[in-house]
Amino acid sequence: MIETSHIDFKSQFYPKVMALGRKYASSLGFMPEGGFEDHVRKQCVIVAHEGDSLCGYVMYREVPRHSRISIVHLCVDDAFRGQKVSKLLLDSLRQEYETSYSFNGISLNCRDDYEYATKIWQRYGFTPRNKIRSRSQEEHYLTFWWYSFNKPDLFSQIVADSTKIKALLDANIIMKLRDAGDVRFLPAEDPTCLLADWLVDETEFYYASEMFNEISRDTDKQRVKRTKGFLTSFQEASHNIEERKSVSISLSQIMTGITENDISDREQVATCIVSDIKYFLTFDEGILEHRDSIEQEYNVKIMTPQEFTITLDQILHEDSYSPRQISGAVSHTISKLSPGEVKTCAELFWYNRSREKKKDFINAFYQILNENQCVVESIKKDDEYVALYATKRDGEVVSIPLLRLVESQNEITILMGLMSQLINQAIESRATKIIIEEVSLREKHREVLYRFGFLNREGKLQKLILRGNVTKAQLSQYCLDNNVQIDVPDLNNDIRLFEFERFLFPLKISDLNIPCYVIPIKPKWAQELFDTKEAGSMLFGVDITRLWNVENVYYRSARTLTEVVPARILWYVSADKHYSRNKGIVATSYLEEVITGLPKDLFRKFKHYGIYKWEDIYKLCGADINKPIRAIRFGHTEVFNSIVPYNDLQKIMGKKNTFQSPVEVSEEVFNEIYKLKDVKRL
Q1: Distance in angstroms between the alpha carbons of the first and the last residue of the chain
Q2: Which backbone phi and psi does 402 adopt, to 5 degrees?
Q3: 3-class state of residue 471 by DSSP
Q4: Sheet of 433-436, strand order
Q5: CA 145 to CA 143: how far, in whole Å?
Q6: What is the number of alpha carbons within 13 Å of residue 251 lying toward its C-beta?
Q7: What distance lies between CA 502 and its chain's CA centroid?
Q8: Contacts from 457-461 at CB under 8 Å and sequence distance 24+?
Q9: Which residue has the higher pLDDT, 325 or 437?
Q10: Cα–Cα distance between 593 and 567 in angstroms, integer?
Q11: Rounded-to-integer distance, Cα 304 and Cα 291, Å
Q12: What distance in Å separates the CA atoms of residue 121 and residue 89, rounded to the nearest whole number?
């Protein structure tokens, strides 16, 4: 009998999956060293097996940015063809995610000339949505296949996104890709992972105009012709030439070489910088050697093709939400709209590329301004308007009749930060519902709102603010009583129920088998990362770069307990006489990711969150950069109105604990602590 299951590193099937993937690499596409490891670590590999024999596997990625599951490999061993192994694997994948509240369906890219695979997709229920040329030298076309989970009331169907991840390829990589069919590369120098079909849907590759200088230096006319033909697979990066020259001169202070190749390297990196392309891919040791200095000075990341491919999920997440984009020297401010700003905003925030008539928007805008209960506010970046919104309170309901953003590189970051702030403000003020009344929401903005738990109700997006603790047995009735019009997951599946809880934040399901940790944190870092009440201000008016961090990262010593994901966090602030909220629990968060590694590696991975500086990390590791530390990524933080003091914790836990390091506690202990978050103390 053939069975399916997820695998981890201890599974006997882990090496067999890698061997099977290598065996069929010609049709599956090249997977770099570490690629299989990364997917197994994320538990994104399902195997079909008969006893000890591997029949096949499906390797996939969770892509929250696009609200979908993306299949990377579906591979069946020849010996098991005709035994419905593909169906079993797809069934297992579908059943894993079809009740999820984060994903709309399953997608994949498949070459048109793979007739056998095409029949599999069609038979299973996938439908072809669009077609695009592959990146191989031969002229092949890929079909984007989509399997919908059919959630019209929960999510709009989003199967494509114009905001692909852009990367500029070093000339040397392009040359290697050109010769890929004739040359065998060492694993560490193999760029062919960039040609994988599954990357086409989410990446766009560019080259610098400097490529033509490289080509002109080639004396082989046939190879020149071949190179020019191959370049058509990519796009030339458009940029201001004078600006590029200036950046190239500045780069010479970091990349100091004077050879022809050195100059060419600087020109290519400079092109990437001024073209607003965030990623530069290279194998050049001279460039990689200086990448920390370059990245510190410019908004660019330098990677090898393997690093780029393996960390694509993180890159997608970072590009869709990067708090660092709104920190530093850039100043964001929120303020009420003054009479002198009205005319300017009426002109600026009309969506002229939509079907909306300008006159209609201006009339609606002035009507909102004239409502007594409406508060209209703008967000500015260095005195330039980036967002405009209005809020209105009617009893326990918060309405948002106006929500507009200027198109920019960081508009999603701004929207996510703003919604996080408005939701927390609603929680704080005891509101029960938030209604988005804005009639001209862009699709990418809707996608963000769905992630925050907004649902389509009566033609408007609404989020219920559900509080308190309920048991699994009470959940269905609770949802019915509160008009939550989505199905409750299987009560035996704690992971899906945990996801459901997150979707209905700040509601807590009290009897889930989910780990919970009390993690100590110094008051300084609590204030920097999430504790707005310590700042002595309510939401608006405190440091925006802190409040807008929907997710954040906290670094700690790696000597003690290793937390597992998913989990809850209770934040224990240590004693410090300079802070009023100390020596007690001040907040709870969801634990998203735990990674142990070397300080520089972790700082590189998470520096886009923007709170920690390298000096902070250096101090944490005791100036020993070879000493491992731990990074904890967390989100959905609920700050307690009242601190739960140390003495109360000891009573609840039944034993003394100094909380010098993380402590795992039971669900019962979490619930008792959580009940005290609003208890006022003298």
Answers
A1: 66
A2: -135, 130
A3: coil
A4: 332-336, 374-381, 384-394, 397-405, 433-436, 460-464, 455-457
A5: 6
A6: 31
A7: 16
A8: 457/485, 460/435, 460/436, 461/435, 461/436
A9: 437
A10: 9
A11: 11
A12: 12
Hey, what are 210's tokens?
């400097």
The percentage of residues in the chain with a pLDDT greater than 70, rounded to a whole number, is 92
Where do the H-state alpha helices sit in 197-300? 210-216, 221-231, 241-251, 260-274, 285-289, 291-297
Identify how many contiguous H helices and E strands the chain contains and give both numbers: 26, 27
Express each pLDDT in 128-137 by its tens digit.
877 777 777 6
Helix, coil or strand: residue 455: strand
What share of the chain has pLDDT > 90, as a percent?
41
Domains of the chain by range and CATH? 3-131+141-148 (3.40.630.30), 165-320 (3.40.50.1010), 332-465 (3.40.630.30), 516-675 (2.30.130.30)
DSSP of 142-209, one letter per residue?
EEEEEEE---TTT-------S-PEEEEEPHHHHHHHHTTTT-PPPGGG--GGGG-GGGTTTEEEEE-T
Residue pair 111/142 in contact (Cβ under 8 Å)? The answer is yes
Among 66-80, 431-445, 449-463, the range scoring the smallest mean pLDDT is 449-463
Contacting residues for 75 by C-beta, under 8 A, at least 6 apart: 20, 21, 24, 28, 56, 57, 58
Q: Are strands 567-573 and 516-521 parallel, antiparallel or unpaired?
A: parallel
* pLDDT at site 541: 39
Strands 165-169 and 279-281: parallel
Task: Please state, in angstroms and rounded to a whole number, the distance separating the CA atoms of residues 130 and 67.
Answer: 18
pLDDT at 329: 35
pLDDT at 671 over 60: yes
**Three-class DSSP category at 650:** helix
**Two tokens at 679?**
């208890």
Amino acid sitting at position 427: I
Q: Which tokens belong to 267?
A: 């020109």
Long-range contacts of 438-443 (CB under 8 A, 24+ apart): 438/400, 438/401, 438/402, 438/403, 438/404, 439/364, 440/351, 440/354, 440/356, 440/361, 440/404, 441/403, 442/351, 443/156, 443/158
pLDDT higher than 80, residue 327: no
pLDDT of res. 537: 40
Contacts of 357 (CB under 8 A, 6+ apart): none
**C-alpha span between 482 and 488 (Å, rounded):** 13
Pairing mode of beta strands 567-573, 551-557: unpaired
- pLDDT value at 5 more than 90: yes
Question: Tokens 């990074």 map to which residue?
Answer: 631
| Exposed / middle / buried, residue 588 (Cβ in 10 Å: 0-12, 13-18, 19+) | buried
Neighbours of 642 (CB within 10 A): 16
Tokens representing 520?
């100590």
- Find the Cα–Cα–Cα–Cα dihedral 209, 214, 216, 222, rounded to 10°: -110
3 state DSSP class of 401: strand
Peptide bond into 506 cis (omega under 30): yes
Residue 353 has pLDDT above 80, yes or no: no
What is the rounded distance in angstroms from the CA atom of residue 240 to the CA atom of residue 384?
Answer: 23
Return the structure tokens found at 164.
């692909």
Q: What is the CB neighbour count within 10 angstroms for residue 183?
A: 10
pLDDT grade for 490, boundaries at 50, 70 and 90? confident
